[in-house]
Amino acid sequence: MSGLDPDMADLLARAVPVTVQPPVRVFGATPVIGEATWAALHEARAWVVRSRT
To answer: What domain range is 23 assigned to?
Structure first.
């Protein structure tokens, strides 16, 4: 998930069970529009590459 405000990110991090697979990653909002989404996309692509090997 990307673009969440800090309070929502904290709430979600505490609410999601640790056993969720693959792990859920939260990318908090930044002052730059789209920055968190790009960071999430970059991480997702890296995860795909890692999972193929």
So the answer is: 2-52
pTM of the model: 0.70
Q: Which residue has the tokens 């999972």?
A: 51
pLDDT (tens digit, 9 = 90+) per residue, 9-50? 888 778 877 666 666 788 889 999 999 999 999 999 998 999
Instruction: State the Cα–Cα distance between residues 39 and 19, nearest whole angstrom.
Output: 23
Buried b (16+ CB within 10 A) or exposed e, 6-32: eeebeeeeeeeeeeeeeeeebbbbeee
Strand partners, 43: none
Number of folded domains that form the chain:
1
Spatial separation of the C-alpha atoms in residues 29 and 2, rounded to whole Å: 7
